[in-house]
Predict the 3D structure of the following.
Amino acid sequence: MSLLVRRLRLLCLAPVPPRRDAAHGGGRAIAELLIRLAERHEITLLCLRGSSTPSADPLLLERCAGVREIAADEPRGRFGRLARRARVAVAVVRGTPAWVAGGTSQAFLTAVREVVEVWRPDVVQLEYHLMGAYLSALAGCSAPRVLRQLEPGAATARDRAGYRGGLARLAAPLDCRAWERFERGVMARVSVVVALTERDAASLGPLAGNTPIECIPLGVSPPSRAFDPAGQGGAELLFVGNFAHAPNVEALERLIRVILPGVRSRCPDAVLRAVGPDPPAHLRGREHEGVHLTGRVPDVGPYLDRAAVVLAPLRIGGGMRVKVMEALAGGKAVVATPLAVDGLDVTDGDQVRIGRTDEELVRATVELLQHPDRRVRLARRAREWAISELNWDRPAAAFDRLYQSLLPASPGKPPRVG
């Protein structure tokens, strides 16, 4: 990048150790951005880390001025889990979202105070709304606060409410109100909110008050080698996702219940492979139906190589779908809903096939399975487009401009060049 920028001290707060190979797309997106920003700014990263979670990306450890990982509070034993559930339930009734109440750490709050006092950052960036729970630790710190909303909480909670059943459906209104209250409070205490898409910005607007909202999309790092555009596993379909995330579970349930049977009625040899951690127990053991759940895998690459078509039938949630961007950049034929490609300037039939209904998704998938030449052409166009349009240089430059706009001018002081 040729952009000349003042070199800043950036304190980044993240709910997980960012890694380019993280199980969740958000963790990968945070890592990719910070790796690039660390080339021009001094970055201190504070993140929560679970006992089974890998440490931050080695390149971040190398490039950042400091990386501090705080052990996440994890309940021990059955009694500990029950006590935590009770605390979370009380917090939701009082207006705090379950994810926030279950993930807040006193040790992390203390660490933020210590770093702010000693390091005195120029800008503080909060990754995800969960980090808003630590804004009180910034008291006395005059640095602008940037909240990057990788997925709006209130809007996603409203989407999710319509697909819940049983007791969860009864609790959904409480969850929605808790998210609205929490996000409104957090956004009132930051300098600017960064949304990934215009759709997200519109959903955040009513809660943001006078806080400005900027749109900065994600980028993607394409693999040096394209995956096999035709696939190596026959009529194998692939869905990738972290199934601790409700929108992925909803999509997988619909894939198994509706979309895959529709495809198999016309392509009997089609099988679905769902790759990602925490697959729901009630969906396991369906190999006789052509469904294979792998759980967490060390590398998704071999599964992308094998797949004839990558499916992304998401219809709830917000943000951008890193797994879709990575499949396009890797040169795979993708069939997706409009929501799954939100924020991407793609055209149905050019870089991706888009289906607005389950039947449209079935038809597009069957067509690509029955016509390998079409899926190869689609896959190659997708990779060419992604390499040209989805690189990380633009988002990183947009953050540089945003930071500079938030800082007071310093007459007579030459800018530091990164």
